[in-house]
Amino acid sequence: MSNKTYNQAEILELINQYNSTDRKLIKANYKRILNDFNIMPKEIMELGYARNNVYAWSTISSPNIPMLDQALTIACAFDFGIEEFLKEM
Fold first, then answer.
1. DSSP letters for the chain
2. What is the pLDDT of residue 52?
3. What is the Cα–Cα distance from 57 to 9, expressed in whole angstroms?
4. What is the model's pTM?
5. Contact yes or no for 82/56 (Cβ under 8 A)
6. Residue 14: Cβ within 10 Å count
7. Cβ contact 73:46 at 8 Å
8. Count of C-beta atoms within a 10 Å radius of residue 2
9. Given this model, what pLDDT does residue 4 score?
C-alpha cells in the first residue's frame, strides 16, 4: 500500500525528477505498470482521461506520456508509488 505524504521540498524534488526523466523510460514504465498492476486502459479512462491520451501513453509512435499530475492520479487510484514511473529498467 502506498500512503506516502510529501513535504514541499520533496514535492519540488519529485517534480524535478519527473521532468528530467527520459520520456521513453516513463512510457516504458507506464506500460510495465499496466501489466504489473493488472490495470486495463479502460480503468484509466474511468479516471477521466480521454481514450486517445490513454492509448497514446503506451503507443511507441507517440511521444506522449502522462503529465506528473496524471501519473500521481493513476498511482493514487491504483495504490502504488509514483516512483514506479521513474524506475530504471
1. -------HHHHHHHHHHHHHS-HHHHHHHHHHHHHHTT--HHHHHTTT--HHHHHHTT-TT------HHHHHHHHHHTT--GGGGG---
2. 96
3. 28
4. 0.90
5. no
6. 16
7. no
8. 12
9. 73
pLDDT in tens, the chain (89 residues): 566 777 899 999 999 999 999 999 999 999 999 999 999 999 999 999 999 999 999 998 999 999 999 999 999 999 999 999 999 97
Among residues 79, 74, 86, 84, which one has the least CA distance to residue 3?
79
Residue with cell 526523466: 21
Q: Give buried/exposed letters for 57-81 (b at 16+ CB in 10 A, else e).
A: bbeeeeebbbebebbebbbeebebe
74/36 Cα distance (integer angstroms): 14
Is residue 68 within 8 A of residue 15, CB to CB? The reply is: yes
